[in-house]
């Protein structure tokens, strides 16, 4: 599996040592605010097993993200196929970081590296990003990495219950749009 590096981060394969901090992230109401219910340790561990299997199967997915200077696991970033129940198709970029890593530019740094991998290595012509309409932090990252939003593409997530997680926004970036 390919490892990606930025000035400060390593995006790498998941390790057993990531399971505990990943579970803590998934049990943090602030981290999960725009994602839905908190996850149990078993659900959290199962998500990592799924991420690894998907990566092995198609050669891309969700990388574990660590800070190079300390080796600290801080979350994930990567690419995934859009779920079948969505009103659009394609490959989406995403990230999720521990609260301790917020506000340091790590999401933007990781996302730019993932975009480059998607366009330059995988040859994707477009990459999408989806979040709840209320997730302003993720939308700010999407704009910082050059993605744009057409409000006509906004949609209600069919998998989300009625409430604040249902209205979603869709951002896009085409291969040639990168600076």
Descriptive report:
The chain has 179 residues and is α+β, with helices and mostly antiparallel strands. The chain has four helices and nine strands; from the N terminus they run E-E-H-H-E-E-E-H-E-H-E-E-E. Helix 1 packs across helix 2 (41-58). The longest helix is centred in the N-terminal third of the chain and has 18 residues, at 41-58. The relative contact order is 0.15.
Work out the number of β strands: 9
Order of helices and strands: EEHHEEEHEHEEE
- Which overall shape is indicated by the principal axes computed on the Cα atoms? globular
Strand order of the biggest β-sheet: 1-2-3-4-5
Q: Can you give the mean pLDDT?
A: 94
Sheet having the most strands: 5 strands, antiparallel
Rounded to the nearest angstrom, the distance between the terminal CA atoms is 27 Å
Task: Please tell me how large the radius of gyration is.
Answer: 15 Å
**Chain oligomer state:** single chain
Structural class: alpha+beta
Query: What is the helix content?
Result: 25-40%
Work out the strand percent. Answer: 25-35%
Q: What is the overall number of helices?
A: 4
Which stretches are low in confidence, meaning pLDDT under 50 for 5 or more residues running? Answer: none
Topology, pairings included?
Blueprint: E1 4-5, E2 9-12, H1 19-26, H2 41-58, E3 62-67, E4 73-81, E5 91-97, H3 106-121, E6 126-132, H4 136-144, E7 148-149, E8 155-156, E9 167-174
Antiparallel strand pairs: 1-2, 2-3, 3-4, 4-5, 6-9, 7-9, 8-9
Which key terms come to mind for this protein?
179 residues; alpha+beta; five-stranded antiparallel sheet; four-stranded antiparallel sheet; globular
